[in-house]
Design a protein that fits this description.
Helices cover 55% and strands 12% of the residues. The strands form 3 sheets. A 5-stranded mixed β-barrel has the order 4-5-11-7-6. The chain has helices spanning 8-18, 35-53, 57-63, 78-87, 106-140, 143-155, 283-319, 343-375, 379-415, 426-434, 443-454, 461-477, 484-508, 512-543, 554-569, 572-582, 585-588, and strands at 66-68, 71-73, 158-163, 179-182, 188-198, 207-216, 226-232, 234-236, 242-245, 248-253, 264-277. It has 595 residues and is an alpha+beta fold. It is globular and about 80 Å long. It has 17 helices and 11 strands. The longest helix is centred in the middle third of the chain and has 37 residues, at 283-319.
Length: 595
């Protein structure tokens, strides 16, 4: 049976030692959220995830959701777990106190999200989608809509969804056909079908608030004619009580490869009553507020699954005996040595560890930057942080979900044949992780966003928010002998990234296919370089503690992992750079009918 223990020690290292999380208390609204308050919150979240959510993860996968006569039922134990989750205030952690939220820093909420995703990704989909809907509605909704819907959503009594995709269109939202017809009372009649709607129907909350993209009657074709609407499952009376059923219903649920305890629904809107969120024709602006929040959260899904897979791979490698070490017997009292002594198993375990801990550092960096972007009193600091978050959002989403899938597969490999069967849990992590590379914009779309939008934005202003601190760090530390083995590989990777950026910028304007052909390799190159920067900083931080009374082996292991990353994983930047510089001719010139 699989196990899970929240990695609180490493989370605290990332938050307090690497990113100086205590400094968040200097931001307006965060004054009370010092370590003495945050640490108990993280500990309680760990307890909830380990003792409540994780035990129903495998059973939820095996049972899945059921659909009958338009009603979706979640697996056994989910309703009780959600009630405990809601009653504990976990739906309100990062929400505005004006609507009943607790207002904790996004950086703290991000670490809690990782724990939830490790322990039970399917369960986490329900409150996760609700929070995304909260972000969009709180940012763009009218005061009347916010007052009417947000308190119940923050409390967790009502949940939320995002309804974008239609049967004939996925990412190309300009093709959507769902219509919105104005009504005399200021509302709209929404008609259309949406597919792949996570948590579109379930039995966990009293009401479900759908955020629906639709085209107002007479609006122009394409994305400029799209508006966003709030469409509740049940109408809400003026006193806040629930009224009649609205014209929205679940037509079916998907039978999926993974996240089987999360209901993925076909939603039919038949003259459903909805209210406009934001301005007409500006629906994507409001929806992308939600999508960007979800993209960061999906990155955490990849990290969460990689972490739980890694933990169980380590446990198995220590316990499983098979063969003798090629350098000599290591466990003479046993019939064979534990497989953790074998070089290839150690390679796999260290690969998991280096990527997991590197991605956690990256996520914490982006999350703390988002807190600065939202709360810093200096508008210049807010803009700089917002630029950085905009730049790194596609990297977090794509890199961390690609690695989540890869690390889950490595977990299966460590288990060997036992990883391929259900009882050890590893195969579920592979299945669950696979969707993270697809939804909220496929990772190929994230790569196109990085090179097509973020790279050229404001004459490269976004890029400077990453390039400048990395360059400054390299220049400041290059002559530090203790850090040379970390800074020099970082410097080489950074030069590759700079050269690849220049190459794409030069050819991309004249030959857009060249930029598109390079995009996925470029995002990976960017992400690997970002992790190298963070591993150099983590090594610097840890080196100061190695051999002191504070080091129980944690800091020494951190330095050793940094060394492994630089020597064995960062060299991937070499072939990624070569692929980028080779251009896209070989793929674009290939005849369509020859595939």
């Amino acid at each position: 049976m699989p196990e899970y223990k929240a990695p609180l020690r490493d989370m605290r290292f990332c938050l307090y030692e690497l990113m100086d999380g205590e400094s968040l208390t200097q931001l307006p609204g965060y004054e009370e959220f010092g370590r003495d308050l945050v640490d108990p919150v993280l500990e309680e979240a760990a307890k909830l995830c380990e003792e409540v959510l994780f035990p129903i993860n495998r059973s939820g996968d095996e049972e899945g959701c059921t659909f009958e006569n338009g009603v979706v039922r979640t697996p056994k134990g989910f309703k009780e777990a959600y009630r405990q989750f809601r009653d504990g205030g976990w739906t309100s952690i990062a929400c505005d106190p004006a609507y009943g939220g607790q207002g904790l820093p996004f950086a703290v909420d991000t670490l809690i999200t990782e724990m939830i995703c490790s322990s039970n990704l399917s369960f986490g989909m329900y409150p996760g989608l609700s929070h995304g809907a909260y972000v969009s509605l709180s940012g763009y909704g009218s005061d009347e809509l916010k007052a009417k819907y947000l308190p119940k959503m923050v409390e967790g009594v009502w949940s939320g969804t995002m309804c974008l995709t239609e049967p004939h269109c996925g990412t190309d939202l300009g093709l959507l056909r769902t219509t919105a017809v104005p009504k005399d009372d200021g509302s709209y009649a929404i008609t259309g079908t949406k597919i792949f709607i996570s948590a579109g129907e379930h039995d966990l909350t009293e009401n479900i608030v759908h955020l629906v993209l639709a085209r107002i009657q007479g609006a122009p074709k394409g994305v400029k004619g799209i508006s966003l609407f709030l469409v509740p499952k049940f109408m809400v009376e003026d006193d806040g009580s629930l009224g009649a059923r609205n014209g929205v219903a679940c037509g079916s649920i998907e039978h999926k490869m993974g996240i089987k305890a999360s209901s993925t629904c076909v939603m039919n809107f038949d003259d459903a009553t909805g209210w406009l969120i934001g301005e007409p024709g500006k629906g994507l602006n409001a929806m992308f507020a939600m999508m960007n929040t979800e993209r960061l959260a999906v990155g955490m899904q990849g990290l969460g699954l990689a972490e739980v897979s890694r933990q169980n791979a380590v446990i198995y490698a220590r316990d499983r005996i098979q063969g003798r070490s090629i350098s000599g017997t290591k466990a003479p009292d046993k019939a064979a040595d534990p497989i953790i002594v074998h070089p290839d198993v150690r390679r796999m375990l260290l690969t998991q560890k280096a990527f997991v801990e590197g991605c956690r550092a990256l996520a914490t960096w982006v999350a703390t930057s988002l807190d600065v972007a939202k709360h810093h009193p200096d508008p210049v600091k807010r803009q700089e942080a917002d630029d950085f978050v905009a730049l790194t959002t596609p990297v977090v989403k794509a890199l961390m979900t690609d690695l989540g899938s890869e690390m889950a597969n490595i977990g299966v490999q460590v288990f060997g044949g036992h990883g391929y069967i259900r009882e050890h849990g590893q195969e579920q992590y592979v299945r669950d992780a696979r969707i993270t590379q697809i939804y909220e914009g496929t990772n190929g779309v994230q790569a196109l966003d990085l090179v097509g939008r973020k790279m050229p934005a404001h004459a490269g202003r976004y890029l400077r928010r990453f390039f400048h601190p990395v360059q400054a760090y390299i220049e400041a530390k290059m002559d530090d002998d203790a850090l040379g083995e970390f800074v020099q590989p970082l410097a080489k990777a950074f030069v590759r990234l700079q050269q690849a950026t220049g190459q794409i910028a030069r050819v991309g304007m004249a030959k857009p296919d060249e930029a598109g052909a390079a995009s996925s390799d470029y995002l990976r190159l960017f992400g690997l370089t970002a992790l190298a920067f963070l591993w150099a900083r983590m090594a610097e931080t840890a080196l100061a503690k190695v051999g002191t009374a504070e080091d129980d082996g944690f800091y020494a292991a951190k330095v050793a992992t940094a060394r492994f990353y630089m020597e064995r994983l960062l060299p991937e930047t070499g072939w990624r750079f070569s692929a980028i510089m080779a251009g896209g001719k070989t793929m674009m010139a290939f005849p369509d009918d020859a595939f």
